[in-house]
Design a protein that fits this description.
Helix content is 73%, strand content 0%.
Length: 375
């Protein structure tokens, strides 16, 4: 019998190779089916074909102890607090407002409309509420936060995959909408009578030699091993490693943030490949009503940030930038920004990294609200 380690390793190699293959057809595929989703589906298809259940394999415990914590500390240690100064406080407030809305609005919507069939039957009875925190993690923090929050809320595998599919559809459509919206920023500034549309100062480029990749990896690996030895609670471990990542990034001279961000991306694919071994394809489902719920949630997020931008008199262009930093991530945020002003691309990247660094904590807030006021 093929071991789960072989299947996971095969998946990571295939997905990583395809994701870096410069072929227009493959690139078109990954425009709509991201590597993170493919990494999750391939192991499920293999285990379904082999008719073997890997959901209880030891690899899942190893992933929770090492792969997920390593991904968390790697991503968190890619954020430089000093870089945030170049963006300015008002664009950051627009971004934070968008994150707050994503974390709180679904709970408020469920609470206010608890008697409707969508809420009472699908979200509560069918336990789709457990898919909400992973969506919060995905939209604000990206794949790392999504995976952590899935574990924290103990989201069932069939609901998690349904969430992944719906999330993928919405994000792709939303990216197209934001491309069109940011191009109309100047017109929207005049429409909303926003007078301050200045371009922020450039972010300084890093100079000097970076800390060697092997040393960076050794440091974060030792941190994870030590945390496993000293801490039993998974939540406590996540919080402490997140703060430790920030300390590493901001207090170690010449920390190699480019490497840790890259290794974090690879680790995310590894974690998804392992989680895919838990998936039972026969249990899959897709609910259009829940997709409508997600659509209302996402549009509300955008309209709320428009209101905050108007209140703060800040360039409307920051709204699609902040939205893509939240919902799209480190790849799509600068791409959308480039459609308006190339000089803003580094700022979009910093906001996207800030999103990655805070997504887990926003998701924890959502879990607390759901468990105390809904579930």
């Amino acid at each position: 019998m093929i071991t789960p380690w072989v299947i996971a390793s095969f998946t990571v190699v295939v997905v990583y190779f395809l994701d870096h293959w410069e072929n227009k057809y493959i690139e078109s595929l990954f425009d709509w089916v991201p590597a993170i989703l493919l990494a999750y589906v391939i192991p499920a298809i293999i285990s379904y074909t082999l008719k073997v259940d890997y959901s209880q394999a030891n690899i899942h415990d190893f992933s929770k102890d090492y792969f997920i914590p390593l991904a968390i500390i790697a991503v968190m240690s890619s954020l430089s607090i000093a870089q945030l100064k170049a963006i300015g406080i008002r664009p950051i407030l627009v971004f934070v407002a968008g994150s707050l809305f994503i974390a709180v609005f679904p709970v408020l919507l469920i609470f206010l409309f608890s008697e409707t069939e969508l809420i009472s039957e699908i979200i509560i009875k069918d336990q789709y509420w457990m898919g909400i925190p992973p969506i919060v993690g995905s939209w604000i923090g990206g794949s790392t936060s999504q995976l952590v929050l899935k574990e924290l809320v103990d989201c069932p595998e069939n609901i998690f995959l349904a969430v992944l599919v719906m999330d993928n559809i919405l994000v792709n459509v939303w990216t197209i909408i934001m491309f069109q919206t940011i191009k109309k920023s100047d017109s929207l500034n005049r429409w909303f009578k926003i007078t301050d549309a200045a371009i922020p100062e450039d972010i300084r480029k890093d100079t000097g030699d970076k800390l060697g990749a092997k040393w960076c990896f050794l440091i974060i690996l030792c941190a994870v091993v030590l945390s496993n030895f000293l801490i039993e609670s998974f939540v406590t471990k996540v919080v402490l490693l997140s703060f430790l990542g920030l300390l590493l990034s901001n207090f170690i001279p010449n920390w190699n943030y480019r490497f840790v961000l890259k290794i974090g991306g690879i680790l995310i694919i590894v974690v998804m490949a392992v989680l895919g071994l838990k998936l039972q394809i026969a249990t899959l489902g897709f609910d259009m009503s829940f997709l409508g719920f997600l659509s209302i949630w996402l549009v509300g997020h955008f309209l709320f940030m428009i209101g905050v931008a108007k209140l703060l008199n800040v360039n409307i262009a920051w709204v699609p930038i902040a939205s893509m930093a939240n919902v799209g991530g480190i790849a799509t945020a600068p791409a959308v920004t480039a459609a308006y002003n190339l000089k803003w691309m580094p700022h979009a990247i910093v906001l996207a990294i800030l999103s990655m660094a805070t997504g887990t904590f926003w998701g924890m807030l959502t879990i607390w609200l759901l468990r105390n006021f809904v579930a």
